[in-house]
Amino acid sequence: ISKTEIGDVIECGGEYLLRDKEYEKKVFKKAFGQGGQDFMSPDQALYFLFEKLPLLPDDWKIERELNFFAFEEAMDCSVSLEPLIGSDWFSISFKIPQGLKKSISVKMIKEILRKKPKYFNAGGKWYSSEKLEASLSIAYFIGPHALKNDGHNISPFQVMGLWHYIQRSGIQQIPKLISETLEKLKAFKGILLPDFERNLDHVLRPYQKEGVAWLGFLHEHNLSGVLCDDMGLGKTLQTLAFLWNLKKKGELGQCVIVVPTSAVGIWLAEIKKFLPDFKAAALEGLNRREFYSRWEDNELYIVSYAIFSRDHEEIDKKGINYLVLDEAQFIKNIKTKRAHSIFKVKSKRRLAITGTPLENRLTDLWSIFNFLMPGYLGSLEYFRDVYQNPIEKQGKNDLLVSLREKVKPFMLRRLKEEVEKSLPPKTEIPVFCEMTDIQKKVYLSALSLIQGQVFDAIDAKGIEKSYIHIFAALTKLRQICNHPALVFDKPDPKLTSGKFETFKEQLTEILSEKHHVLIFSQFTSMLALIRKWLDEEKTAYLYLDGSTKNRMELVDKFEAGQFPVFLISLKAGGTALTLTRADYVIHYDPWWNPAVENQATDRAHRIGQKRHVFVYKFYCRGTIEEKILKLQQKKQKLFDDIMEGSTKQLSSLTRSDIEEILTPEF
């Protein structure tokens, strides 16, 4: 802003007027405060336009040059929240400048919330970010598309997730339903146990009764949650007991329980054993079609994730009161058809069951909560920007604490050592093996080739787009650690494996003492080599992989003590098996995620186990397998930080991690 003057005369509208310099000083002082000035910097000009200009008297005439930049004079930026009649949902609307609505972008919102500039330019106009911060925060949480419309419907869970922003935005009408729910959660100190019928009262352990009561508390307050007790603590039975209580009160309706394919029979067996009066059926095979025509005949439908993905539209039409996910980590990959089908199906109530709600990344947790309480943790982009990246890559402990506090009321986790005092101990024993000379040569030769391929891919695409190349390369090295014969189409009979020789010695000793043992490997090709050796040794064994159909028959044979060895592929047998006959567990090859190994181990170390369980984990010294231990520790920290409350720093896989993994130590 400037003025042109010629001595004591000033040109105004084509006329020349004598100046009243004393009056001019008063005007400038009124407009700019003490020390009024004739010119301003851009920041000062913006401050004047937003803060001072609206305060000038109405009778002042204000002119502006045609090429003077535009600014928003009327800054009305309120947020309103109204309950929708006949629903527990709400309508949220943003009253902000129309020009801003048309020009604001996700990138711009993120930049404003990150840098917090006092003013910003959008669509050729300038706006005050301070007055819009709460509105923009809410819009980014929901998804910036909310700003494009006059109104947007949101769920009670989104309102709960937005609570911090809503309080800052100045909304006067606080939804009673939400405020009361939050107060009850805040005031929660314990749960009254319901009355259990005789058939359940004698079966359920005290902590299981508390779990059933906790599920009842969530139901009473129209909430959803995750029952994430440690593996082997009877989550299936607790869930069935909770649903049975609903049935007795006439509140069950139709319930669909989605489970891994291998667990369909287990759920039906648990129902038959403990609650045979439940009307339950499995949606599987071609016969499942007949159930859709007489849906009301059953109260519980057990369906695999694979069948649910195919039939979700048909199931959605039938109307579901409770939708329950067993092993809910199955939907952690939000890009899969499996996850999308789960998110799409409507139900009045939802429940998730998993011993590992977080396996690899924080988005595993977001995916489960997106099923349970859509919008509670914000949009995926919001969650990644606000929580995942700062926590995993920058170690932001304050955000870790914030996230933990948000999810804590809706997650119930008890550890075996805390609640099952009668459970025998479990001892983990690492076994470090030396490679044979020929095995070492094969390993180093492959490593030399792989290093170039991996780092070329990372340099060309970046680490996040190179995971397929990285893990394919690392898998080959892991196979060589197991036995170099695994990487050759026609292996030389002279190829030997130090790990395999150590394994054979260890297993021979275990079997000589009449123990029963579970042997896990990720590679069915490795299990094939073990089978060949066991056949030569005339040792009886059972075998299970992804193609096995008679799982329960094999379990019964092992539990009866007919076979001392059970060979199991890690992916197929890491869940939905109870094998308490075994008192030894062998992990022939380590896996990246300790939760996967722990799930497999707990096929034996669970309720019903009477003996001390010994867990042997085999590693080739100085190789990628030793480096996997470090990665396991990182992932375990991430899980513990969210579930147990640690505030140790976290970090994701980086280029330096890859370099460390691919550096031999022999």
Protein model, in words:
This protein is 46% helix and 14% strand. It is α/β, with parallel strands linked by helices. Strands 11-12-10-13-14-9-15 form a seven-stranded parallel β-sheet, sandwiched between helices. Mean pLDDT is 82; it is low at 1-6 and 645-652.
**Cα-to-Cα separation, first versus last residue:** 73 Å
Q: Residue ranges: pLDDT <50 for 5 or more in a row?
A: 1-6, 645-652
Main pleated sheet:
7 strands, parallel
Order of adjacent strands in the largest pleated sheet: 11-12-10-13-14-9-15
Output the structural class: alpha/beta
Helices and strands in order, then pairings?
Layout: E1 9-12, E2 15-18, H1 21-32, H2 42-52, E3 70-71, E4 78-83, E5 90-95, H3 98-103, H4 106-115, E6 119-122, E7 125-128, H5 129-142, E8 152-154, H6 156-161, H7 163-169, H8 176-187, H9 198-201, H10 206-220, E9 225-227, H11 235-248, E10 255-259, H12 264-274, E11 280-283, H13 289-293, E12 300-304, H14 305-318, E13 322-326, H15 337-344, E14 349-353, H16 362-372, H17 380-394, H18 397-407, E15 411-412, H19 416-419, E16 426-433, H20 437-461, H21 467-482, H22 498-512, E17 517-521, H23 524-536, E18 541-544, H24 551-559, E19 565-569, H25 570-573, E20 584-587, H26 594-601, E21 613-620, H27 624-643, H28 655-661
Parallel strand pairs: 3-7, 9-14, 9-15, 10-12, 10-13, 11-12, 13-14, 16-21, 17-19, 17-20, 18-19, 20-21
Antiparallel strand pairs: 1-2, 4-5, 5-8, 6-7
